[in-house]
Automatic annotation (TrEMBL):
Compartments, record wording: Cell membrane
PANTHER family xref list: INNER MEMBRANE PROTEIN YGAZ
Keyword hit for Magnesium: no
Keywords: Cell membrane, Membrane, Transmembrane, Transmembrane helix, Transport
Name of the protein: 4-azaleucine resistance probable transporter AzlC
Pfam family, one: AzlC
TM regions (residue ranges): 29-47, 59-80, 145-168, 174-193, 200-217, 223-245
Amino acid sequence: MKQENIIKVNPNEDAGIKKGRQLIRGMKTGISIAVGYIPIAITFGLLSKAAGVPNAISIMMSLVVYAGASQFVAVNLLALHTGYWEILLTTFILNFRHFLMGASISQRIEKGLSKPWMALLAFGITDETFAVASMEKEQQLNPWFLLGLNLIAFSAWNAGTWAGVFLGTALPDSVQSSMGIALYAMFIGLLVPAAREKKAIFHIAMLAVLLHGILHWTPGLEVISTGWKIVITTILASTAGALIYTEEAL
């Protein structure tokens, strides 16, 4: 009998190829997110520069905090010389939803992952990557796919921040100083379309304005710092909105 050649497949090598494919698939899936992140991150870098935030802090915020809305708010609070505890508390409130997103994703991750692995994947979850991962048809999410998805989004955000920070250095002083108002313009640009579409958001926004006005103009309350006024207003307005309106209304 003619002896047939038997090709032995290394199971570890085969598993490595599968992991690599899932990683690349995740990165390809996240390209659209990355494209959207870059201009926003550049804006963050420019605004940080205009607000007088040191380059190292702006870059570290994107590396360590990695939360777009919170970073913009933090820059605003830093520009107002707000205390660090107020900034930390505000960031915690804004990012509280990440507990829910992380808990939801963890139920679909393949079982048996170590805690460091889970922590790494949880760190990279954003609103956009969560939405994309949630639309995956597979009941169980491959951790390497999620890693690739998070990695390309994280890389784009940080690349944009670097570009914005160092692009801001090259801009004339007159342009840099005029960028200070862009942060408020951005928040107004985000709020107005949402408020026009949903009355509940408009009512909550007006309540926040009213509460902040009371805290600012009431005699005896001037001892409260600007940062704490923002924190108190955020908590009271969001709590009132959650109690008064249904989830569909928001």
